Amino acid sequence: MKGIPPLATTVVGSYPSVPNRAMLVNYCRGGIDPFPESMRQAVDAQVSAGIDIVSDGQTRNDMVRLFTTKLTGIRMRSKPVIIGEIGFKSPITAADQITARNIIGPNKLLKGIITGPFTLSMSCNDDHYGSPEKVTMAFASALNHEARELSEIVDILQIDEPYFSVEYPEYAGNIVSEIFSGIEIPKALHVCGDVAGIFPQLVELPVDILDHEFAAHPELLETITETDFSQILGYGCVRSDVNEAESVSQISERINKVLGCVGHDRLMLDPDCGLRHLSPEVAFAKLENMVRARDLVIENES
Ligand SMILES: [Zn+2]
Predict the structure, then answer these.
(1) Given 3, 171, 210, 214, which is the most exposed site by the fewest CB atoms within 10 A?
(2) Is residue 280 situated within a structural domain?
(3) Is position 255 within any domain?
(4) Is residue 118 part of a domain?
(5) 128 alpha carbon to ligand 1 midpoint, in Å?
(6) Distance 274 CA to ligand 1 centre (A)
(7) Ligand 1 centre and the CA of 165: distance in Å?
(8) How many angstroms does the Cα of residue 13 sit away from the middle of ligand 1?
(9) What residues have a C-beta under 5 A from ligand 1, the ion?
């Protein structure tokens, strides 16, 4: 695929770089926005680790609130409540992506990330639409505006739908088509959890990259071997739920296993999921070791 190198390394999204409490309190009182600095740290860490396609680190909020606080028709409670038509007001993450782009410059690749409409729907109470499908499609229409904004800034656009592995909606194809309508850059779908049962359906979706957790679910390798698919595979090869970095040899063993069924040009390497819950030192070591493992695999092949 144009612009994406074979065996590219990337991240799913979040990175453990958050402002301290004093900075947040100061910000709430009208002080300086501390998030550009958090973002700079998150982006710098990814670049230093050697990651090819970086993210803004999603430091500003959790994946649900990042979007539900900025769309119309939603009242924020401990679980957001939909009280009217879900609509797009103004760009949500575009300014942060521009900040990230300015940090990395034009030559490094940048990934934009939008939390999936189905996951947002399942994370809210609905007092307005009366059906999860209507809520989901309303989120998809609203977030298509965000997707169009981001596609002017980033090189790859990813939607995160962790709830697909909990319950796979029969209208999944409509969701993905709607949110990605008019988008020309490479489109990725990240679904964590056990996707063995739905992988044959995921491969039918109109996306260019399918990204899943293989470190926590190595048995998925069997499923992908048995399934015909044309997408690039995002291969989660370090665990995001274990706060200890895997060794280079352990990760390279995992990479060698997938290379038996998918070639370099159809493979991207990343952690299983976002790294938000790890310590910054461990998150960095995981990324650095993943890049070294990729380089070791290539070196041993030549
Ligand atoms: Zn995930």
Answers:
(1) 3
(2) yes
(3) yes
(4) yes
(5) 28
(6) 6
(7) 10
(8) 9
(9) 192, 273
Phi, psi (deg, nearest 5) at residue 207: -130, 160
- pLDDT tens-place string over residues 101-123: 999 988 899 999 999 999 999 99
* Overall domain count for the chain: 1
Cα pseudo-dihedral 283, 288, 294, 297, rounded to 10: -120
Closest CA to 149 of 94, 207, 189, 97: 94
Asked whether residue 1 is assigned to any structural domain, the reply reads no
Q: Are 18 and 38 in contact (CB under 8 A)?
A: yes
In this prediction the pTM is: 0.96
For residue 129, give its domain range. 8-301
- Residue 167 corresponds to which tokens in the numbers above? 């319950």
pLDDT in tens, 221-272: 999 999 999 999 999 999 999 999 999 999 999 999 999 889 999 999 999 9
In angstroms, what is the span from residue 160 Cα to ligand 1's centroid? 7
> Which 3-state string (H, E, C) describes 151-220?
CCCCCEEEEECHHHHCCCCCCHHHHHHHHCCCCCCCEEEECCCCCCCCHHHHCCCCCCEEEEECCCCCCH
Whole-angstrom distance, CA of residue 50 vs CA of residue 248: 14
Whichever domain contains 60, its CATH number is 3.20.20.210
Gyration radius from the chain CA atoms: 19
